[in-house]
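Box 3.1 A note on notation
Throughout this textbook, protein chains are presented in two layers. The first layer is the amino acid sequence; the second is a token string describing backbone geometry. Keep the layers aligned when reading.
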Amino acid sequence: MNRFSYFKVTFLSLTAGLFVGIFLYGLFDVDFSDHQALINLLFKSFVTAIITGLLLGLLNMFFKIGNFKKKAN
């Protein structure tokens, strides 16, 4: 497997999980009548998930951590 595969798997799974987790956790604290607070929460969770996913994806690309099965020829 090439390095991009390791990055892609890590980035997509972590980014999706973190985005949903941060967004749902933030919904408990936000006032639903304030639309700006909802937009800020959405933006904050998106940016945090993207930055964390990029950093961990790049680390995984170089260290190649993962148990991917090799294709049999």
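The chain has a mean pLDDT of 87. DSSP finds two helices and no strands in the chain.
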